[in-house]
Amino acid sequence: MNKKQKNLLIRIIIAAVLWVPLFLISEEIIEVPFFQKYPILLFCFFLIPYLLVGHDILRKALNGIKNKQVFDENFLMAIATIGAIALGEYGEGVAVMLLYQVGELFQSYAVGKSRKNISELMDIRPDYANIEQEDGTLEKVDPYEVEVGSIIVIQPGEKVPLDGVIEEGNSALNTSALTGESKPREVAVGDEILSGSINMTGVLKVRTTTEFDESTASKILDLVENASSRKSKSENFIAKFARVYTPIVCYAALFLAVVPPLFIMLTHVGAHHYATTGAIWADWVLRACTFLVISCPCAVVISIPLSFFAGIGGASNQGILIKGSNYLETLSEVKAVAFDKTGTITKGNFAVTAVHHSPVAEQELLDYAAHAECHSSHPISLSLQQAYGSKIDPTRVTGIEEISGHGIKAKVDGRNVAIGNEKMMKLVGAESHPCHHVGTIIHVAIDGEYYGHIVITDELKEHSKEAMQQLKKAGVEKTIMLTGDAESVAKKVAEEVGLTDYRAELLPADKVTAVEGLLKDYAGTNKKLAFVGDGINDAPVLARADIGIAMGALGSDAAIEAADVVLMDDDPLKISKAIKISRKCLGIVKQNIAFALGVKLLCLILAAFGIANMWLAIIADVGVMILAVLNAIRCLAVKNL
Amino acid sequence: MKKSYKIEVDCANCANLMEEAAKKTAGVKDAVVNFMTLKMNVEFAEGADPKAVMQDVLKNCKAVEEDCEIFL
Question: Which residue has the higher pLDDT, A351 or A517?
């Protein structure tokens, strides 16, 4: 609790202690003849706890009137309690103020607490960096002051303060604060490491590659902290609602206090219920006061931004960065997800999956192919070298010649090896067999004779299939893959993963058109389209979709910039998780709106008919607020969704 | 030009009032108050002096919500 809250708590306690005996006296449960003789003294005594606990509310209400911002909750409470006291209901008037302040205290405490919880979840801000002095001792400096290219030392247990490349040492890093992935990542010399992760086992010397402001940790924090500034429709609705609602309620209360008594006095309808004219006024003014107490809108006003903030905080803890409350809201309405293929559904690393029609052993063919491609860094060449498995001996290779659009010719162990597509085979006069497999086909000819072909395919990500099932479970109707690959490849991947649709052979510009087509299908409905890509060359598509999700984006500025939702690692399961988190939060927001407004409306009606008294009013107000805030905090718990 | 300031305010509605007060201040192009992170992001109009403008913003905010604070 901060100073203000402690102060309020003490005021509440003292006022409550004073209030109890006074209330018992006023209700004549304890009989004190002195007060019965001088009731005005009882009023004076009640003023002590009233002013003690409510003076700031009264002052704020006055201030509001001065500033022509009359209708706020302070005004409601001031009028209601003064009204009750003026009618001789001292005990109730003071109790309302007391309980209202209890509610305010709880609210301020709960918000402060969850603010702290959320910032702890996102505790990736490094406090210092170690710089080695000439005598070998370490000096702690502010990460702001470390220049790009400096060498910093990170000891076990410390946070990586700046992005950089390891110069010395190896260790395991805990990147869970960044990615939500709990498995430690092994790193060694030459690896790039990101700020915000925690060094677990070994001492590392790192050459920094960014300034603090540009480092991953700073960027993520900035993004998440500013996320709730982009307000959602629900939040805007509530802000507008509160602006219209409070004046309406005040006028309604005024109406309730004046019109029915006048009506009764003029027509004498129902007048037999009252002993005197004064009693008619007292009854209706008290009803109006009760009406005002109930109408206080704080439960909704506080719980909605709190829900969004908690949801965004919880998601970021799982490696899902949502750039604004509005995006969280849109995400919950997603009914179709379009995917890029490479890097999203597939790993984007190619692997040899078959060797066909080879007259020699597979390993021997791979040996020739890998050596012929030994100087290329193309993903296909790398996959050949990987499939070969043994060490490449470049001295066995001479006369490498790359023929653009065909392939590579080289002498390996003195034999003329040609590898490439069918055109290449024609060029060297070998007769190639077509392949019925899907993927990239590499034909091999040795000394002009056909030696079969190698099939290379992009591997599916481990969780791709499961991710599609999860999406379906989360209520996504359509999953569409957009790819530049050949029809046959796209079809196979789509079937294997369980996509509902695919579009193949698309140029980058066609992807935008395809997304626009999908958007058109949903035009005029509440259904939204998400696009998931790796953020590298699909920025226009990310921007065009209702919501752009970039994955595996850790360290890629362009992707973080272009997307609305950023998945820190490249696990496709995170897509459904993000959608589930958004659904949960929006569900809670809607529950709170419906619950708070429903209870209020019910109590307002009861109060207008004189059924609800002031006790019920204040308990409904504070109770609804407490329940709504507790419900909002549930948004934080998204780990097991 | 955009700047971010730390603020202190007790309730969400008061934060909304601050936001409105800040928006109405001369020299402020746009202002967003974030109650959850207790931050005020102000976009200044061209040629405005942030320091002078923020004094006015603080004054206007205090007028609507005397308990608030902006750490300039």
Answer: A517
When the candidates are 1.10.8.420, 2.70.150.10, 2.60.40.10, 1.10.10.10, the CATH number that belongs to A129-158+162-210 is: 2.70.150.10
**Count of alpha carbons within 13 Å of A629, Cβ hemisphere only?**
24
Condensed to tens digits (0 to 9), the pLDDT of residues A190-203 reads: 888 888 888 888 89
Encoded tokens for A463: 């969780």
Tokens linked to A523: 């035009």
pLDDT for residue A53: 92
Instruction: Give residues 29 to 68 of B whose Cβ lies within 8 Å of A.
Output: 32, 34-39, 41, 63-67
Q: Is the pLDDT assigned to residue A297 strictly greater than 60? A: yes
Backbone phi and psi for residue A617, each to the nearest 5 degrees, phi listed first: -60, -50
Q: Which residues in chain A are contacts of B16 at CB distance < 8 A? A: 239, 242, 301
**To the nearest whole angstrom, how far is the Cα of A47 from the nearest Cα of chain B?**
24
Distance of CA A637 to the CA centre of its chain: 12
Structure token digits, residue A393: 């001996």
- β-bridge mates for residue B5, sequence order: B40
Domain borders along chain A are 1-121, 129-158+162-210, 215-345+461-582, 348-460
Q: What is the pLDDT of residue A639?
A: 81
Q: What is the pLDDT of residue A615?
A: 85
Residue of A366, A404, A521, A104 whose CA lies nearest to B67: A104
User: What angle do helix axes A90-121 and A614-633 make, rounded to 10 degrees?
Assistant: 0
Q: For residues A72 and A516, what is the distance between their CA atoms, to the nearest angstrom?
A: 45
Cβ neighbours, 10 Å, residue A347 = 16
According to CATH, the topology of domain B2-71 is Alpha-Beta Plaits (3.30.70)
Cβ pair B11:A228 closer than 8 A: no
* Residue B63 to chain A, least CA–CA distance (Å): 7
The verdict on domain A348-460 having CATH code 3.40.1110.10 is: yes
Q: At residue A461, what is the residue type?
A: K
For an interface test with A, which of B36, B38, B39, B41 has the most A Cβ atoms less than 10 Å from its Cβ? B36
Give the pLDDT of residue A94: 92
C-alpha dihedral sign at A308, A309, A311, A312: positive
Domain boundaries, chain B: 2-71
- Residue whose C-alpha is closest to residue A570's, from A181, A286, A258, A255: A181
Locate tokens 């309020």: which residue? A8
Class in CATH terms, A215-345+461-582: alpha beta
pLDDT average, residue stretch A327-335? 93
CB < 8 Å to A305, chain B: 12, 35-36
Encoded amino acid at A412, one letter: V
Known active-site residue A340: yes
Q: Which residues from A are below 8 Å from B when comparing CB atoms?
A: 4, 56, 59-60, 63-64, 67, 69, 72-73, 104, 107-108, 111, 115, 118, 225-226, 228-229, 239, 242, 297-298, 301-302, 305-306, 308-309
| Of the listed ranges A126-130, A277-281, A506-510, the one predicted with least confidence | A506-510
Q: Closest Cα to residue A561, out of A317, A214, A143, A229? A: A214
Which residues of chain A does B64 touch, with a Cβ-Cβ cutoff of 8 Å? Answer: 64, 67, 69
Output the pLDDT for position A536: 66
Q: What is the ipTM of this complex?
A: 0.79
pLDDT beyond 80 at A180: no
